[in-house]
Amino acid sequence: MSEEPKTTTEAEVPEDPTVDPTEEQEAGEASQAMADEVARWRDLAVRTAADFDNFRKRVAREREEAVRFGNQDLLEQLIPILDNFEMGMMAAAQDSSSMIYIGMDMVRKQFSEFLSQQGVEEVVALHTAFDPNLHEAVSEEVSTEHAPGTIVRVLRRGFRLRERLLRPANVVVAKASESSEG
Known about the structure:
Layout: H1 21-69, H2 72-92, H3 99-117, E1 120-122, E2 135-142, E3 151-156, E4 159-161, E5 164-167, E6 169-175, H4 178-181
Parallel strand pairs: 2-6
Antiparallel strand pairs: 1-4, 3-6, 4-5
C-alpha cells in the first residue's frame, strides 16, 4: 500500500513552540507602524494635491487681476492730465463758441470716453453721504440745507477702476450749525 503524503491545512498546523510571542507582538507593532506610515504619506499626498490645486487657482485669479488692472498705473497718471485739461476748458469757457474751445471739448469727450472704455468711472460724491473709503474730507461747512455728513461740494473728482479706488474724491462735508449741536 502506498502512503499518500498528508496535506495539512493552516488550521491543522501545530503551533511552533520556537516562535516567541514577543516576536509576534513586535511584528504586529511593525505592521501597525507601517500602516501608520502609509496613512501619513497618503495624507501628505492628499494635502499636497490640495495645496497645488489652491496654488493653481490663486495664480489664475492673480493672472485675471493682472489683466483687469494691468493698466492701473497708466490710468492713475492720466487722471491728473484730465483734471488740468478740464481746468483749461473752464478758463476758455468765456468764449465757448470759439473753434479752439469746441475742439478742446471734443478732445475732452474723447479722452473721457477712452477712460470709460478702460473701466474708469467717476466716484459719485455730490449730495451723497460721506464714505471714507471713497471720499477724502478736506473741510466741513455749516449747512442748513443738507444733513450732517452729506457732501456739499466736490473739490476734486475721485475715480475708480472697476471696483478699485484710483483716487478718492476731495470733498467738503456738511456739519450742523454750532447752535444746533448743543
